[in-house]
Amino acid sequence: MTEKPSPDPTAPSAAPPAVEVDVARTGGIAGMTRRWSAQPPEAEASEWITLIDRCPWSEAGNREPMPDGFVWFIRATWSGTGPLEAELPDDEVVGAWRELVDAVRDWSRQSADPDRPSR
Amino acid sequence: MSPGIVPPYLLARIAAVQEENWARAADAAHRTLAAPREYRPVRSRLRLSIQEPGTLVAEATPAPDREISDAKHREVLPGTRVRGEDDPATGDASVDEAYDGLGATYDFWWDSYGRDSIDGSGSSLLATVHYGRDYDNAFWNGERMVFGDGDDEVFRGFTRSLSVIAHELAHGVIEDEGGLLYRGQSGALNESIADVFGALAEQHRNGETVAEATWLIGEGIFTDAVQGVALRSLKAPGTAYDDDVLGKDPQPAHMRDYVETRDDNGGVHINSGIPNHAFYLTAKALGGHAWERAGLIWYRALTSGTLPSTADFTTFARATLAAAAAEYGEESEEVAAVRAGWTGVGVIPNDREAES
Which phi and psi angles does B302 have, rounded to 5°? Predict the structure, then answer.
């Protein structure tokens, strides 16, 4: 259950996304990279920008990585602003970062083709 | 016994010799090992075995000190302590698998190299299970091993594989020996050494020879939906899985296929395939139990005290060559096997003159 309206697949796709957030989870004992992306429309932009603004972008990624720990890459762009990027060890993906990552993963899951294998 | 001049790993090796004309030395080594050491408090246990029909062998060896905690699906460490040393099984499969796996890994390090736990001085073996919700990973946080349950779509839990448990513990050993920077080639070496000792711990528990072993890391942790047998193969890097969703195992087995990437701290779990395969080639050339000669050489190279934390593949290859020469002699078959292993993956040139 989620409060966010799911993206309407029948909506015209001509307008570029107002906001784009890309998340990659790399490393882990398996060394497998998984990627998620959210490209919400204009109507949801302010809600997403609030999520993005709450993240401490300038304080990210100064620690030595943990053996087999996940490493996250998070990148946000929206109209008129250059991309924000952060590289984070898994245990720093809490609070505002976690909310942003969860929102991207939810968005990505909801917009996925239901026929596509889900793994 | 006060700290002896003959180190315990050597005594353990002599004690393990089966030849008849070494019987006295083996017996003496057993007794020396069994004598109490007073320089530190140790947990110890009496091990009984029947080596020849009618010959009961009793030896006192140090014992592990395990502690398993349950994170109860939160991402908070350490969680609640649920099983300590000598406590009975809990009935929770993850808790009991972690406990048994740490015990088997402890035995591997002690029996093979005379190493008493992660720090060589009987440090506690700490693990947390049920970390996070659908958490697809196992890692070493500098103090303890942490295991997720998996999401049941790709992974069905990490404690069911001894090679995974032993891999995590090996990260602790590597760190204790000065560490290898977890990025680029030194990071891939860190990963490879953890894989090597992860595989060896499993082979040691199963009593397998080089030829009998699977050489897989993480066999059995994928769900049936995944087309793959394990996370990695030391015998054939790049062949552990080939799945329509996960893609193909990306590990190279040769320097010509080294992968440059920003992901995974510079591909530490990818390029580890190269030193992994060098170890396999060395072990295959020597035959028998891989932990005895090939494993000892890798262990000596790791614990020589001269390996820089920024070591690249070539630096580590030279350290293994030096270790093999010191242990078995410059002209030994062991040195030849190590050299062939590293030339086989393109880390050192295929010309003896060129590398000296």
Answer: -65, -35
The nearest CA of chain B is from the CA of A114 a distance in Å of: 14
B164 at A interface, C-beta within 8 A: yes
In tens digits, what is the pLDDT along chain B, a chain of 356 residues?
344 566 667 777 777 776 777 777 777 776 766 665 544 456 888 888 887 777 888 888 899 999 999 999 999 999 999 999 999 999 999 999 999 999 999 999 999 999 999 999 999 999 999 999 999 999 999 999 999 999 999 999 999 999 999 999 999 999 999 999 999 999 999 999 999 999 999 999 999 999 999 999 999 999 999 999 999 999 999 999 999 989 999 999 999 999 999 999 999 999 999 999 999 999 999 999 999 999 999 999 999 999 999 999 999 999 999 999 999 999 999 999 999 999 999 999 986 544 44
Structure token digits, residue B324: 């093999």
Length of chain A: 119
* Pairing status of strand B125-131 against strand B66-70: parallel
Q: Do A68 and B225 touch (CB under 8 A)?
A: no
Asked if B86 reaches chain A (Cβ–Cβ under 8 Å), the answer is no
B167 inside 8 A of chain A by CB: yes
- B269 catalytic residue (yes or no): yes
Counting one residue from A and one from B, how many pairs have CB atoms under 8 Å apart? 90
ipTM confidence: 0.83
B130 is catalytic: no
Range of the domain at A84: 19-110
Residue A5 falls within a domain, yes or no? no
Angle at B13 between CA B282 and CA B314, to 5 degrees: 30
Q: Which domains does chain B have, with CATH numbers?
A: 8-62 (no CATH), 66-160 (3.10.170.10), 184-355 (1.10.390.10)
Domain count within chain A? 1
pTM over 0.90: no
* Those residues with Cβ within 8 angstroms of residue B186's Cβ, 6 or more apart along the chain or in another chain: B180, B309, B310, B311, B312
Residue of B67, B97, B130, B168 marked catalytic:
B168
**Under 8 Å CB-to-CB from A19, ≥6 apart: which residues?**
A38, A39, A40, A44, A45, A48, A49, A52, A76, A77, A78
What is the bridge-based pairing of β-strands B44-52 and B55-62?
antiparallel
Nearest residue to B160 via CA among B200, B123, B202 = B202
Q: Write the CB contacts of A14 (distance below 8 Å, at least 6 apart in sequence).
A: none
